[in-house]
Amino acid sequence: MADKDGLKNADNFMIDVPQAQRDFHVKGCSDYRWGMKTRLSNIFNPISGNTLMLAFDHGYFLGPTSGLERLDITIPTLAPYIDVFMATRGGLNACIDPKLLSDKAIALRCTSGSSILNDDLSHEVVSVNIKEAVRMNADCMAVQVFIGSEGQKSSIDNISKTIDAGNELGIPTMGVVAVGKEMERTTKYFRLATRMIAEFGAQIVKCYYCDDFETVTASCPVPIVIAGGKKLPEAEALSMCYNSLQRGAAGVDMGRNIFQSDAPTAMVQAVRAIVHDKATDKEAFQMYQDIKNS
Questions:
Q1: Residue 132 falls inside a structural domain
Q2: Active-site residue among 4, 8, 206, 278?
Q3: Could you say which residues of the chain have pLDDT below 50?
């Protein structure tokens, strides 16, 4: 192990030099085999290189939340505009018609073990194994990772075992950077957590947007998808989406900023315009208003 004493702060991110893609459109994934690349291509659009995930897995630790009281009613109206369902197996099995999945990918939530009744959410387990992921036709497995928390070691064990199983059968793993109430939300923290998860072998990393976000994406050798986070005013959420892509993100995984919007179907179309059509945040907000008022 490297000696921590005398370590210099990282400051040479060479932001203006993109990582070489070679013969594949997903960052850092050129050397994977056909099955893995097929699933990654289902997630990341080969033309734009980006993805729009719809997160509705909140119930696995929050129970019913505003906008997700009825998955069977809310999600089908948004499905035409998204690329990936980010969900639990129970939510998919019980509430989502398989016909909606004909041209959509699945990011399957594979860890759980805590709830809002717990003070510490970091003690999760792998609750969905690789065989179930295959049965669910998952395009990637999502695992929460608690860097710097009491449960750090067990969550690293969770993602490491999931990556091993996924690599064996050609299913990518998405490491989700967890940010609990006692955890940092600094640029330095996100650089640490995303780089660690990538070096464990995850093919995708999900984290929050932050200041100097370009240093986070530059130092992470696989694609970063940003989490939508708490509900923001629509214009602010669209600016966060636009700015994250301008600074190197490969997509967004939005939940509350879409399904808790005053006009969810208008909002999801505006987000999609940024992710895939190179719309600016101002253009997307105008689009949101036009659709909402039509």
A1: yes
A2: 206
A3: none
